[in-house]
Structures are given as structure tokens and as C-alpha cells.
Amino acid sequence: MAYTMLNIVKLDTLDTLHSLKAEYFAQTHAPLDGMWHFGFVPMSQHYAFYESDVLVGFCCVNSDGYLLQYFLSPQASTSASDLFTLIAQQDSKVIGEVGGAFVCTCDPSFLSLSLDNAASSSVNTLLYCGVKQSVNSEGAGIELTLATGDHLSLYVDFAAQAIGAPKEWLTSYYGNLITRQELFGYWQDGELVATGERRKFDEFQTQYADLGMIVSTHHRGQGIATKVIKALIANAVAEQLIPMCSTEKTNIGAQRAIEKAGLVSKHRLLQVQFETL
């Protein structure tokens, strides 16, 4: 078969993939989810595809055995379908066990190949991009304050209590956002009641701003989430960036807040389980 001429190599660094990553992002129909593709993907194991020592593609698999990215250059002679099936059927000795994929509906090639090999699929995440109408900070009705290093521990404690994330991870994550001036707080009477994130991309998708927010458990149901998102949208638009965000399918409250803020959802992140023959 065509893929027998292909060499799959396990990578220790991602430096060699930069040009192919650029091609991969360029062929998507909408921006890929920021947390998945710039948070989870770099932590996943990457594999390069070579034809006669020429790099023609790559894939990456997370620690749970799910494909997160798959790309084969149009210039490759290898069949993208045959190679994908080889991986999905766990016939690659280099890659090993792969049970499924997390794939976005705006990534048509990866999506089609995943569904071709699917035993089942379900929606994991709703992806939002762009606004229905102009939104400004006055419409939000609140003012967000840029976080500083002096308040890092406070932000870490807030998020740990609100969403249960590990403090060690939050310290690193929020510390980086503060350095990049991408973390904001909404305060009431000296109390931090919500956080907002407006994350820029260093490469690929640089025309977008990825938004995120957390509201204190004691202040939910008061419309604060929608106001925070509106303020973040205004911040992004002021920097001539297109706002985007995502939320889990099960998080109905966040979906309502995001939609009230005016963001539009046209794409989904699917969890696909592969069929084994």
C-alpha cells in the first residue's frame, strides 16, 4: 500500500514542524480552539511523516491515546486516508495505541478521516468566533482591571476555589498571563468576583483573541459572566482582534452568557472513538 514508503519518526522537539504547522492552520475554515491547540497539543507526543527523508506531515497523540492534530501535505505521495487508517487501527508500531480523536468541524480533512474510522462521535465543546453586533465597554457596564504580579496568589486562590484547578498549574498559567498583560479582574467592594482572559496568539491565528472568564461561585446567576465577556470583547475589538472562545457542551450557564454577550457559534469540537477491525 502507499503508506509502506512512508517513515514515521517520534519527535523530541517541535522545531522541525513549524512550516507544516503553518500549513495545517492555514487550511482550517475557522480558528482552532486555543486551549486545545496551544495548551494541550504542545504537551502531546508528536510524530513526523517522512518520504525519502522529506518531511511531508505530522500528527500528535495525547497521553490518553487521542489524536489531536493530523496533517499530510498535498505534495505527499502517500494516501492520507490509508495512513490515517493505519494509525486508527493501531497498526503503527511507532505510534502505538490510538483510541480516537478530538477534532474540530472547521478542520475538514482531519474531521472526514476521523469519521471514516469512527465507531461513535459526540460533541465535546462549542466554539465561538465573531460577534453578532457591535459590543463596547459601555454596553458591558463594568470595568476590568489588569492583573499585576502583586495579586498573583489572590488570583490563584480564586480560581482554585471556583473551578478546582491545581494551584501549581494556576500559578504558572496566571503568572504567564500577567506577564503578557492578558489577565483581568472584576472587583466589587474590594473583592475579586470574576476573572477575564484575553489571550493573544504568538503565531498562527494572530488575528484572533481567545477569551475566557471565571465567576465566583457566590456571584453566579447575576449576569456578571455576560458583562465580563462583553468587556473582553470590547478589549479585543479595540486592538483590532476578532474575539473567540469556547465552552463545554455540558456548561449551559456559560453558553447562555456567551451568547448573550453576542458571540456566534458555528463549529464544534468532536470526540471520536475509532472502530477497531
From TrEMBL:
It comes from the Bacteria. Pfam families: Acetyltransf_1, Acetyltransf_19. InterPro entries: Acetyltransf_19 (IPR040579), Acyl_CoA_acyltransferase (IPR016181), GNAT_dom (IPR000182). One of its GO terms (molecular function) is acyltransferase activity, transferring groups other than amino-acyl groups. Residues 142-277 form the N-acetyltransferase domain. This is N-acetyltransferase domain-containing protein.
